Amino acid sequence: MVPNGWQKVNLKSLLSTTIKNGYSPNAVEQETGYVVLGLGALTDNKLDARNIKNVEATEQVLKSQLSHGDFLISRSNTPDKVGRSCMFRGEVANCSYPDLMMKFRANEVFIEPVFLEIYLQSSRTRQYFQNCAAGSSSSMVKITKSVVEKAPVLLPPLLEQRKIAQILSTWDRGIATTEKLIDVSKQQKKALMQHLLTGKKRLIDPETGKAFEREWKTIKIKDVFKAKTTRAKDSNYTTYSVTKNGIVSQENYFNKSVASQDTSNYKVIEFGDFVMSGLNFWMGSVDIYLNKTKGIISPAYKTFSVSNDVDLKFMYQFVRSDKFNQILVDSSIVGASVVRRNFNSDVFFNWGIGLPSMREQQKISSVLTAADNEIEFLETKLAHLKLEKKALMQQLLTGKRRVKV
């Protein structure tokens, strides 16, 4: 049903240009003053201007240069990312767009560009593109120029478009501010980890009121982690994977279980176990399991118990630090491909690490845990803002809720 005073049109009727594919030149290492967007530059609601590659200023590159107000849409991507779009606002100078994106401009006689951007990013339009996407591979699908041109748009009068855009832009600013706060908090925590986990900065001992002074002792990793293997006797466990984001439930991370039907060979993990990916360990796929309920993981993962002589929360922070990641890299060599490294357990387990007193470990872990809590609070706030904006979009972009102009 079309709201009173609105029109139902297709996208093509709202454009001032034809829809054109971009050009993907070979990237070069040196800075040339000219760049092309990477496919990952299009996120769900904005342009990631960091996702760029240096290119030579060839004739084809110059022909695919972007101007302020150009719209970009991902024409080939994974099923969940195809159809991502945004308006280019001159975030990067001398920037062109790749072959797997399309470009067009809005006709401002009929449509407010910011309103169009919001409409294209709405769940309704994204679902349209995903439904129309096709491809021979389940991992990469495409949408055609015709699909984009036929995208349905519920079009309010210009004044109402501008009011809707103004309201939703307020939410966007709140989201952007929260995202920046999260980035700042993560950088601050990273700096804290670099200083506190290396002893460069010493905290105040609450018992003395002075900075901790006791010299750190050097111990070997084998004194902290002991290999363990407990096989699953039944399937009544949640299955987990180890990622760069830590230990995560397969159901939550992959939206499905990727475990084998027979999990009798899987390893049981319990509270306090250190778990490491056998393949991606050097990319940060390590973590300490802090769930009170036992779970299972693939036999491809390495599992260890953690010594009671260290503070578990301190060690949790340590294994997720850049320092520990560098130890993993230095304890391995490049394998058959650049993304594979062969783990040398002898080097790893005999690696020496500095360890403060138990009291200082506990103080360090409390400071870093507080930083984690602040990040978690902001991420929860961000998720709520996005959900609230999504609900508001569904009302405003369908005319279920009208605005005063």
UniProtKB/TrEMBL annotation:
This is Restriction endonuclease subunit S. Pfam families: Methylase_S (PF01420). Keywords: Coiled coil, DNA-binding, Endonuclease, Hydrolase, Nuclease, Restriction system. One of its GO terms (molecular function) is DNA binding. InterPro entries: Restrct_endonuc_typeI_TRD (IPR000055), Restrct_endonuc_typeI_TRD_sf (IPR044946), Type-I_RS_S_subunit (IPR052021). Residues 3-183, 214-386 form the Type I restriction modification DNA specificity domain. Residues 368-395 form a coiled coil. GO terms for biological process: DNA restriction-modification system. It comes from the Bacteria. The keyword Cytoplasm does not apply. Belongs to the type-I restriction system S methylase family.
